[in-house]
Amino acid sequence: MTIILITSIVIVLLILLLSVKTTSKAYNYKHTIDPIDHTAAKDRQKKDTEQK
């Protein structure tokens, strides 16, 4: 019974450690934004005005 309890605690701690590690890595990820393509924006605006 003691071996099962110890094994269970080790598994729970391992899962907790991995969860904290992956969450921390996700928060540290730097997101980038693609630059705006001005010609595409003008084309989209032109289409919007033509549809009205």
TrEMBL record:
Superkingdom, natural source: Bacteria
InterPro entries per the UniProt record, alphabetical: YtzI-like
Name this protein carries in UniProt: YtzI protein
Organism: Metabacillus rhizolycopersici
Protein's gene: ytzI
